[in-house]
Amino acid sequence: MKPDKMIKVRNGLALLFACMLCGFQAPDTLITGSAGVAANPCPVQVHRHAPGGWEILFDGTNTDKWRGKNSDHFPAEGWVVRDRVLFLAKKGAGDIITREVYGNFELVLDFNLTVNANSGVKYFVGEIKNGKTGEVVINGPEYQIIDDYNYPEVKDHRHEVAATAACYLLYPPENKTLYPAGKWNHVKIIARGKHVEHWLNGVKVLSYERGSADYLKRKAATKFAGFVNYGELPEGHILLTDHEDTVYFKNIRIRRL
């Protein structure tokens, strides 16, 4: 092969490799674009899987890994993809869940709050039944995402089990750094067996054991008390909540452990 052709091939491979990695870099802090969020510099996502066993749940272009919580289809309105970011643009669109279920996993994503926003990421989501009333709901533990600096119920450390990175109503986060509305934050959730960890911006902020005596004691003091298997399903969906507020999401990936 002639030297000039070798250079072209090498440069082409380098460009392809750069685009494959582009969606998986550290969170941005520069906020631009029509949706108020940073655009991904790569124009196309070449693969739906990444090195290291990662499955791409949202690559900035399509939502085929997701559906409505109570539907086989992705919501026709409300959830929007713009500037390579997924967000709720209209109230009442409903929660969305992954099409597949996961047991042992590591989930990562980036989120960007708007002022006063409330949202969350749930896991081990499935049908659970209230032992007293017989009510059946689709639910699971929640990694809380909320504007700690402005939301009335949580600002000034008023309600830590409802603050960002908490396991909602059960476990408060510790030693966390939350970037305010307009900046990207990075989430990691690790679940292995009964053990669960919440991470925020590179720091582990809590861990707990599903179904432990401590877990059940805490659950008994919440609105989830009657649901005997809340948070204890062997596997379940990942869910993004519709709390009627706009929070931007990108770089959503998961790998089975």
Question: How would you explain this protein's 3D organization?
Answer:
The protein is mainly beta and 257 residues long. It has a single domain, classed as Jelly Rolls, CATH 2.60.120.560. The chain has 2 helices and 15 strands. The strands form 2 sheets. Strands 1, 2, 4, 5, 7, 11, 12, 13 and 15 form a 9-stranded antiparallel sheet that branches. Mean pLDDT is 86; it is low at 5-10 and 13-47.
Explain briefly what this protein structure is.
The protein has 257 residues and is mainly beta.
Layout of secondary structure:
Layout: H1 3-22, E1 49-50, E2 54-58, E3 66-68, E4 79-82, E5 85-88, E6 96-98, E7 105-113, E8 118-129, E9 136-139, E10 142-146, E11 184-192, E12 195-200, E13 203-209, H2 213-220, E14 237-240, E15 247-256
Antiparallel strand pairs: 1-2, 2-15, 3-6, 4-5, 5-15, 6-14, 7-11, 7-15, 8-9, 8-10, 8-14, 11-12, 12-13
SS elements, strand count: 15
What order do the helices and strands follow?
A: HEEEEEEEEEEEEEHEE
Helix residue percentage? 10-25%
Total number of distinct structural domains: 1
Largest sheet: number of strands, sense, barrel closure: 9 strands, antiparallel
CATH domain topology: Jelly Rolls
Gross CATH architecture: Sandwich
Oligomer: single chain
Q: Tell me the structural class.
A: mainly beta
Stretches where pLDDT falls below 50 for ≥5 residues?
A: 5-10, 13-47
In CATH, the homologous superfamily goes by the name Exo-inulinase, domain 1
Strand residue percentage? 25-35%
Total number of helices: 2
Identify the CATH class: Mainly Beta
Mean pLDDT: 86
The CA-CA distance between the termini, in Å, is 43 Å
Q: Which term fits the overall shape? A: globular
Rg, nearest Å: 19 Å
